[in-house]
Amino acid sequence: MEIRYGIGFWLFGQLQDRFTVYHDARSMEEKFERASKVEGAEGLEVIYPVEFSDENIDEFKSLLKKHGFKVSGMIVDLFTKRKWINGSLSSMDEKIRREAIELSKKALDAAKEVGCETVTLWLGHDGYDYPFQADYLKAWNNLSESVREIASHRGDVKVALEYKLKEPRTHIFIGTVGKALMLAEEVGLRNVGVTMDFGHALYAFENPSESIVLLHRKNRLFHIHFNDNYRDWDHDLIVSSINLWENLEFFYWLRKIDYRGWLSLDIYPYREDPVKMCQRSIENLKILDKLIDKIGMKNLEEAMKTGDSTTITATLMEILK
Amino acid sequence: MEIRYGIGFWLFGQLQDRFTVYHDARSMEEKFERASKVEGAEGLEVIYPVEFSDENIDEFKSLLKKHGFKVSGMIVDLFTKRKWINGSLSSMDEKIRREAIELSKKALDAAKEVGCETVTLWLGHDGYDYPFQADYLKAWNNLSESVREIASHRGDVKVALEYKLKEPRTHIFIGTVGKALMLAEEVGLRNVGVTMDFGHALYAFENPSESIVLLHRKNRLFHIHFNDNYRDWDHDLIVSSINLWENLEFFYWLRKIDYRGWLSLDIYPYREDPVKMCQRSIENLKILDKLIDKIGMKNLEEAMKTGDSTTITATLMEILK
Amino acid sequence: MEIRYGIGFWLFGQLQDRFTVYHDARSMEEKFERASKVEGAEGLEVIYPVEFSDENIDEFKSLLKKHGFKVSGMIVDLFTKRKWINGSLSSMDEKIRREAIELSKKALDAAKEVGCETVTLWLGHDGYDYPFQADYLKAWNNLSESVREIASHRGDVKVALEYKLKEPRTHIFIGTVGKALMLAEEVGLRNVGVTMDFGHALYAFENPSESIVLLHRKNRLFHIHFNDNYRDWDHDLIVSSINLWENLEFFYWLRKIDYRGWLSLDIYPYREDPVKMCQRSIENLKILDKLIDKIGMKNLEEAMKTGDSTTITATLMEILK
Amino acid sequence: MEIRYGIGFWLFGQLQDRFTVYHDARSMEEKFERASKVEGAEGLEVIYPVEFSDENIDEFKSLLKKHGFKVSGMIVDLFTKRKWINGSLSSMDEKIRREAIELSKKALDAAKEVGCETVTLWLGHDGYDYPFQADYLKAWNNLSESVREIASHRGDVKVALEYKLKEPRTHIFIGTVGKALMLAEEVGLRNVGVTMDFGHALYAFENPSESIVLLHRKNRLFHIHFNDNYRDWDHDLIVSSINLWENLEFFYWLRKIDYRGWLSLDIYPYREDPVKMCQRSIENLKILDKLIDKIGMKNLEEAMKTGDSTTITATLMEILK
Predict the structure, then answer these.
(1) CATH code for the part of the protein at C2-277
(2) Nearest CB to C309: which of B238, B310, B317?
(3) DSSP reduced 3-state for C203
(4) Which runs of E-coded beta strand occur in C122-191?
(5) What does pTM read for this prediction?
């Protein structure tokens, strides 16, 4: 296992929901300043072309260098502009779909330029809110073709599908690990895989460890987002603040599958200071990592082998004595 | 039963979520223009002092008159300003709590002035996101005292607590019909009651009809919000677009308890034209109302008396033949 | 489209939950007697070897003939015996896993003998209840191998994986349409597909129509179970008693994909008379089917093409006028 | 705070669900034998008159004495017999309702006789599965009258309403802390209160600590059931096996409100040895109790006062270092 910690660059800009604006917009430089205060964070995940674009890529690169950050990931902006609200890569409107494809290709090129290995496609508006609203057959065919075309653009950048059950649509097409994996397999290219968000898995009622194992079996685990929630919604809470045991189990499996990549924070500081919330989340991830050593992989493996819940719980609760 | 249809005034202004701005801000006059296009809507529900205030109350009143609208309800703005994000009427910060109380009292006065009978307190930020984050004992004592003080300010305006399980907090104190009713009973004043939101009831896994019956038993059903969802979140969808039967049942009970008041739309047109979405929702409400006549209260009552699900379903499905 | 209605044979025997026994056990003959009272039901779905076995297959066949029933489906009993409670086809205990495989193969042979085209594997105990309880990697490898071996036993009987998110385990491996499809594709045999249960889809927060379209795209939709629920649990309620619109949409898509097969009732008459509950469910299915004609495929298609929720809802609510 | 540990007596008898019988029935004596192996358990909670009745009360008392157990609680059997499946204390059938009342009164008398302070009314069948199935108004009036009559029977035994959102009905009338509290307040007798089940609170999306604080404010917290789940269903898992932080917070509040009473295990050993599962759960409860000392009430209080999630999480995660 070889992990590095990244943070969402957007955490340092404007943050809002339906009711309230919690944090104001900031310049690129200010965002870098704030992000650089998070100790232990080596990477930034950025939304392209919202947070940097071809126009300001030089400024972006020089700020990366100045603050010693890598680009841990990029997300194509197929969700902040009003033109995407009825879908992007699955759109029935061929003009919109083409635009989405071309933007994604440009994102791959930009990724190469800023040294980013993985570009995430999170298609939050590609879905439906009502029965009878979507032509599922055409939509999935479109998705498949679009992803194939994007990933074929260049094989030296990874394309990662980020699944999420809902929000902003009540139903998002790429909603679960199974659907994401099925789509990646259908496209069939080696550089198509999945970004797995711990919280998204939880509120699709997946066990996040099982989800990364399924992706690992097909060599399609490309990237990981971290946060926590109550299994009901994408609350993007501090890592491990709600579900300690599944977070711990996840670190066990990161080792077992020998994960080498980024753990990127996708939390949402509604009422928190973004720097402190990131800092705390990274600290918590490090505590979890060490906790595995403290308990011991062997011990955990033996407890697991029994399959007996009382033995497992005993092993875990022991650390609290 | 004597019902009139109202619409949330905010539906015609800026609408956004975490990701996207779906509709732009508009002037008061523009909002009136658009609202007036919704046939059958007689009332407007407004957020005070965001949508009208003491400064522009004359303009507001003259526009009401011009367009022939009543004020079907008012909601005190204890949620759009950043100062409320850690709580308002339950706040541990006495200064904030006092401010929230005083604003609410002013809202009662303003209500009287614009001929509005009911002021809703929706306390979306009064709650918590994490274990150990709230002092539940102090918070509930504060809530109780605050509501009592506000309602005591004047007995000729009704104060209605709107319960909601979550959003924007992961847990909101006044979350269910039971908690809202308990608080209203504890305060004990005749002008304290509840605003019941159909969708909020659904996603607290309540049957909305049972909820209004519980409120009716204590004479505390003051106001009703309408929308629909998948029982998982406050999606604020078009009325009856998802849960036909529970919507129909609701109209049965509105008659049984002889409800006399407003049915106010609290939908959210993310991807819709607000006028069309309101229009459609009111049409649907009217169809439901007539459907009760079509099936017949007697028929429904007899089916209910059997308690037998096959008989009930037969009665309902009959209308689709 | 060419559909026929089937019913679960177990509905006429003992039915119980954790708390109460609702219906008593009955002989095979009595169960046939009762099932035969359900008008419109042409098929019986049976659990092998619990409801018939090699010992009484002749009696079973003669009763089938007497009552004019086909065997619409068979389910291998990998869930009623205590030996399966820690897993069957995924079991870490090789002896148990082999037993499960052999039983499944025998079920394929028996299916051939009673003229049943599809054998369902519903693996309710193959999953986990606690973090750290399952070795996901070995379990999924086991599942894959087991299914391949079973389906390879004979290519002239279809093997259908029935996915279900939970119950009796808190997490079942084959939990969603995506995971089921992924497994079927991985095994890669033409006679491996999926049994899609309408209610299971709903409470995995899938739209059942989207789910059958996904399966159809890969020629892996083998069988369909019908029932309804509140999206929260497998309540197995009367068809269309809760979610009318998604039921209706489902019939639209059955036509679009030209489904030719069984619609089999998997309801659970806790407090109902099983015959009446089946009868009512079949009536409801027929009403839905006719309703599609009444509204018209064209009309529905045009509404869908707009993607506009107000247009769609108008089209649907029109039928209630 | 003064707590003692109890266990459900039924855990040592037959345990089953819809699919499987997990443990066989046992004699009263055998159940005592097994329960007595759980170290630290001082009380037994029993279902009356299923687990002891007027016929065998002497045997029961002598076994209690022999094994040194108190009766920590009694639950009236208004759920295992088929006659209750359409409701008991809320029943529209006056004969059934009277029977349920009389049985409950007898339970109070029996409680007195076996030295049990609190009798729990858990009304799992008093609810509904379908829209239009219940007359909510009559049902709630019935509930209120029935509980008043039962509690009036004698004031020296406490009557505790156990709320649960669903199962076996899809909707149970007394479903949330708010509804339970409202009913208890309405009845108004000092000996009417609430049995709070940790898992029931969780899957009604309550924070269990907030729930006991609400009950404590009205002097109506009579009894506590312990178990854990995934917030989605009453899985009755090992204490603290899923939600560590909310379990820990609960122990903080038990001290703050100075709880003096039983913590009774209501877990369900589907695949576990009942003795081991109880033992483990009690160990876990004790670890949580000590953990409060280890962190310190002061520390926790100070963290809470900040209301800042990063500070709170830091305080909690510290114990894992």
Answers:
(1) 3.20.20.150
(2) B238
(3) helix
(4) 127-128, 158-162, 171-172
(5) 0.98
Of C20, C229, C241, nearest to D168 by CB-CB distance is C20
**Residues sharing a CB contact under 8 Å with residue B27, sequence separation 6 or more, in sequence order:** none
Tokens of C29: 């003959």
Using a CB-CB cut-off of 8 Å, the residues of chain B touching A237 are 129-130, 170
The residues, ordered by sequence, that sit 6+ positions from D25 with a Cβ below 8 Å of its Cβ are D13, D14
Quick one: average pLDDT of B44-71?
98
Tell whether omega for the bond before C269 is within 30 degrees of 0, i.e. cis: no
- Give yes or no for a contact between A263 and A233, defined as CB atoms under 8 angstroms apart: no
Phi, then psi, of A94 in degrees rounded to 5:
-60, -30
Q: How many angstroms separate the CA atoms of A139 and A30, rounded?
A: 40
**What does the domain layout of chain C look like in residue ranges?**
2-277
User: Pick from A191, A36, A56: which is nearest to A119 by CA?
Assistant: A191
- What fold does the segment set D2-320 form as a domain? TIM Barrel (3.20.20)
Could you tell me the two tokens for D306? 């900040």
Q: Do B170 and A230 touch (CB under 8 A)?
A: yes
Give me the CATH topology for the region B2-278: TIM Barrel (3.20.20)
Nearest CA in chain B to C308: B272
Residues A63-96 as b or e (16 or more Cβ within 10 Å = b): bbeeeebbbbbbbbbbbebeebbbbbbbbbeeeb
Q: Do D309 and A272 touch (CB under 8 A)?
A: yes
| CA atoms of A234 and C51, how far apart (whole Å) | 44
Residue A196: predicted pLDDT? 98
Residues 6+ apart with CB under 8 A from A50: A77, A80
- What mean pLDDT comes out for the span B232-258? 98
User: Residues in chain C with pLDDT < 50?
Assistant: none
Q: CB-based burial of residue A145 (10 Å sphere; 0-12 exposed, 13-18 middle, 19+ buried)?
A: middle
Contact C22, C269 (CB under 8 A): yes
Torsion-angle region of D122 (φ positive above 0: left; ψ -120 to 50: alpha; else: beta): beta
